[in-house]
Amino acid sequence: MIEEPSDRLRRARSHKGFRGPTEAARAYGWNINTYRSHENGIRDLSKKAAERYASALSVSIGWLLTGENPPKWEDEQTQDKVKPTRKIPKLTHAQAYSLTQGTKLEQIRGIFEFVVIGVDPVLGGDVFALGVSDESMSPEFNPGAEVVVDPDAHWKPGDFVAVSINTMETVVLRQYRISGYDNEEGEMVILAALNNAFPSIPFTPGKTGTILGKVVGQYKRYQ
């Protein structure tokens, strides 16, 4: 899984004994909405905010921002432990597209196969795996690879997303980017292919298609 600073912030807060972000924010006098947006990944963590949180939660700013210099308690938790696993459905592109047409994930259980990943408490309940079928996102995601998609994760510019396109009646992977600003429509979004041989797609939610979720990592066969 691709780990973000918000993931480490959440673990540090939990290890400090706070049951949720609101409880921690109140204890330290932080703005509740700001802290919650940092912990759930909606807002990027600035160096100034990271310094404040690191000091209060007794971790290093380097670990909070980059994962370097982990606290002793995290090393102890990861040593000599059998990693728990979780089984998630692997969807075909047609099955993934059907999720935008009113079909619920549980309604197609038994039709797809499952893959096993390591348990990650950050992931939502409707996570699924999706095969990469073309070279549009090479070299990041190559044909034959499998990505993990989380419909509950918040995406931001620069993130990779799985999106259904109405005119194509299928699901593609693209990078979510802001291409400009319109006085009437607001931010202008483009879903960019990394391979110039494939089209990037100007995107209007609902009209162009539907974003199914954020790509949170590539699936590797669990060892």
Relevant terms:
single chain; 223 residues; alpha+beta; 434 Repressor (Amino-terminal Domain); Umud Fragment, subunit A; 2 domains; 9-stranded mixed beta sheet; globular
How is the topology of this model organized?
Layout: H1 5-15, H2 21-28, H3 32-39, H4 47-57, H5 61-66, H6 72-78, E1 85-91, H7 93-98, E2 113-118, E3 128-131, E4 146-150, E5 160-165, E6 170-182, E7 186-192, E8 201-203, E9 209-218
Parallel strand pairs: 1-3
Antiparallel strand pairs: 1-2, 3-4, 4-9, 5-6, 5-9, 6-7, 7-8
Helix pairs in contact: 2-3
How many strand segments? 9
* Total of domains: 2
Provide the CATH top-level class of the largest domain.
Answer: Mainly Beta
Percent of residues in helices: 25-40%
Number of helices: 7
CATH topology of the largest domain: Umud Fragment, subunit A
Sheet of most strands: 9 strands, mixed
CATH level-4 homologous superfamily of the largest domain: Umud Fragment, subunit A
**Can you give the mean pLDDT?**
83
Structural class: alpha+beta
Strand order of the largest sheet: 2-1-3-4-9-5-6-7-8
How much beta, percentage-wise?
25-35%
Backbone shape: globular
Give the helices and strands as they follow along the chain. Answer: HHHHHHEHEEEEEEEE
Radius of gyration: 19 Å
The separation of the N and C termini measures 14 Å
The stretches of 5 or more residues where confidence is low (pLDDT under 50) are: none
For the record, the CATH architecture of the largest domain stands as Ribbon
